[in-house]
């Protein structure tokens, strides 16, 4: 799954990676803090708009430990939501900083991660005062219109999205996001 954001990326933003992760998933549940994996920190997020976050589902809800034993199940249990400038991997991290891309690793994304990805996109788009595209930059939506389009997913609580995802994991297919397939073929 892939989203794009346009905006003014030349100025430093004030987002903090941990605060962003807590908005995307939760801050505390049953007295326990959110367990996440991340590549990047406040500095990379604020200055380079670069960050990768993953909800360590099995550490936040024991039921994820009982979900399947296949590589597909493991991959979907630990889907990374990555933010970087388009073509960063191609250009060896020297991009034009024109379009910020937010991706998951797979075309089909569990509801709990899709909700988190939408929240990340809205938070970042608001920080740079920019629109969001989910159709490969064909059309652009302001954050309010984007929120309206995904109201059903965004209105779910973390727990509701997690419950749906525990069912979805049984049938979802781990097909690589097309953007990443180009690097697998090299």
Order of helices and strands: EHEEEHEHHEEHEHHHH
Radius of gyration: 16 Å
Helix content: 25-40%
Main sheet record: 6 strands, antiparallel
Structural category is alpha+beta
Q: How far apart are the termini?
A: 21 Å
Strand content: 15-25%
- Low-confidence sequence ranges: 90-94, 181-186
Multimer state: single chain
**Total number of β-strand segments?**
8
Mean pLDDT: 85
Shape, per Cα inertia axes: globular
Biggest sheet, spatial arrangement of strands: 4-5-6-7-1-8
Task: List the total number of helices.
Answer: 9
Describe it for me?
The strands form two sheets. A six-stranded antiparallel beta sheet has the order 4-5-6-7-1-8. Strands 2-3 form a two-stranded antiparallel sheet. It has helices at 17-24, 42-48, 57-60, 71-77, 111-128, 143-149, 151-154, 158-168, 178-184, and strands at residues 2-5, 28-29, 32-33, 36-39, 51-55, 81-85, 100-103, 132-133. α1 crosses α5 (111-128) and α5 packs across α8 (158-168). With 186 residues, the protein is α+β, with helices and mostly antiparallel strands.
Brief overview:
The chain has 186 residues and is an alpha+beta fold. It has 9 helices and 8 strands.
List descriptors:
186 residues; alpha+beta; six-stranded antiparallel β-sheet; 8 strands; single chain
What's the topology here?
Elements: E1 2-5, H1 17-24, E2 28-29, E3 32-33, E4 36-39, H2 42-48, E5 51-55, H3 57-60, H4 71-77, E6 81-85, E7 100-103, H5 111-128, E8 132-133, H6 143-149, H7 151-154, H8 158-168, H9 178-184
Antiparallel strand pairs: 1-7, 1-8, 2-3, 4-5, 5-6, 6-7
Helix pairs in contact: 1-5, 5-8
